[in-house]
Amino acid sequence: NPYRLCTELWHTDEDGTVVDSHTNSKDVRIILRVVRHLEVGDKLTGLHGNKGVVSRILADEHMPYVKSTGKPADLLLNPASVTSRINLGQIAEVAAAKIAQKTGKPYPIHNFSKVSNIPDLKRELDAHGIEDAEMMVDPKTGKDLGKVLIGPQYILKLYKTTDSNLSAR
Question: At what angle are helices 118-127 and 88-103 packed, to 10 degrees?
């Protein structure tokens, strides 16, 4: 008999959604999308090569916040890693996302045209009264941290999580 039963059971408590299934010779592969909360040690990446590892998870009241709105930062990136992996796409993504939030409409970026998007983004930010950098405050001391580029950005949690990489801890 060329076929044999090969079953892998799902032993976690997370809910999953089947997003794809396909056969590969004799195997059937099911792809699940599972939403998991971040844990210390999880790997994160942006769409522009910026990546890092979760080092601490803090409550909102312990995160630096925007002085004008009082909204805490969702995620802080280590400045040392940002400079080594800086890409103008990161800055353009944040600026375009701020414009899209303000207008309620998507802001398309034409990446492969030979014209720079940066002057257009600056013009749009000014036209809508949006600042690219905002004053941040340290919640423990109440001191200003200076102006920081802050805004929405796609951040993905990579497949290699702490659960699958326990030997490295």
Answer: 30
Lay out the sheet containing 155-157: strands in order across: 51-53, 43-46, 155-157
Q: What is the pLDDT of residue 83?
A: 65
Phi, psi of 125 (to 5 degrees): -60, -45
Asked if residue 68 lies in contact with residue 135, where contact means CB atoms within 8 angstroms, the answer is yes
Length of the chain equals 169
**What is the model's pTM?**
0.70
Instruction: Label residue 35 by pLDDT band (50, 70, 90).
Output: confident
Residue 17 burial (CB count, 10 A): 9
CA distances from 33 to 30, 44, 45, 106 (A): 10, 17, 18, 26
Instruction: Kindly tell me the burial class for residue 112, based on how many C-beta atoms sit within 10 Å of its own C-beta (0-12, 13-18, 19 or more).
Output: exposed
